[in-house]
Specification:
With about 170 residues, the protein is mainly beta. It has one domain. It has 1 helix and 10 strands. Strands 1, 2, 3, 4, 7, 8, 9 and 10 form an 8-stranded antiparallel beta sheet that branches. The chain has a two-stranded antiparallel ribbon with strand order 5-6. A hairpin with a 4-residue loop joins strand 9 and strand 10. The longest helix is centred in the first third of the chain and has 20 residues. The radius of gyration is 19 Å and the shape is globular.
Length: about 170
């Protein structure tokens, strides 16, 4: 009887542990945007998709004005390129980067940080930035309930969430 009870406890504990590591069950599930650009460069963005849920982005939910944001939810958003590229005319070596952003009144600062393996932006250090660019904020059409990244063959990277749209180009 004791061995049956121990087996039951062990089984339920392992099932509980597995369910906690299933990232697809999170309120902000994981997503990946991938594309092979026309020049052969592979670009991917690994992120989690928060939902608007009736809130106002920038007022009731991140990103908040003038604060570093992980550009997604849960772990930091990871931007990966397999070749050296230029973004906004500035060089970025091949590799993995934490993708962060700062929302300003009329534009955004997009940050490629050398520390990509972290939770949120809690350990973000500006001294680890590999590149910062400015990007214009536009109105998204249609409204995006979940944060969504897309990458086009010509290298245009789009972040859309709620009625926000922010884009930059990878060359």
């Amino acid at each position: 009887m004791k061995s049956l009870l121990l087996l039951l406890i062990a089984t339920s504990s392992s099932l509980l542990a597995c369910s906690q590591t299933d990232k697809s069950k999170r309120p902000s599930p994981p997503a990946i945007a991938k594309e092979t650009l026309a020049n052969g460069t592979n670009v991917s963005i690994d992120y989690s998709q928060p939902s608007v849920k009736g809130r106002t982005v920038g007022k009731e939910v991140e990103p908040f004005m003038e604060q570093v944001w992980r550009a997604g939810a849960n772990e930091a958003t990871v931007f990966t390129i397999d070749k050296d590229v230029e973004i906004d005319g500035k060089k970025l070596p091949a590799g993995k980067y934490g993708l962060f952003a700062i929302m300003h009144a009329n534009n955004w600062t997009i940050i490629f940080n050398k520390t990509w393996n972290q939770w949120g932006a809690f350990k973000y250090k500006e001294s680890e930035d590999a590149l910062r660019i400015n990007a214009e904020e536009k109105k998204a059409e249609p409204f995006a309930e979940r944060l969504t990244y897309t990458i086009s063959k010509d290298g245009k990277v789009s972040l859309s969430w709620g009625d926000l749209l922010v884009e930059f180009v990878v060359k």
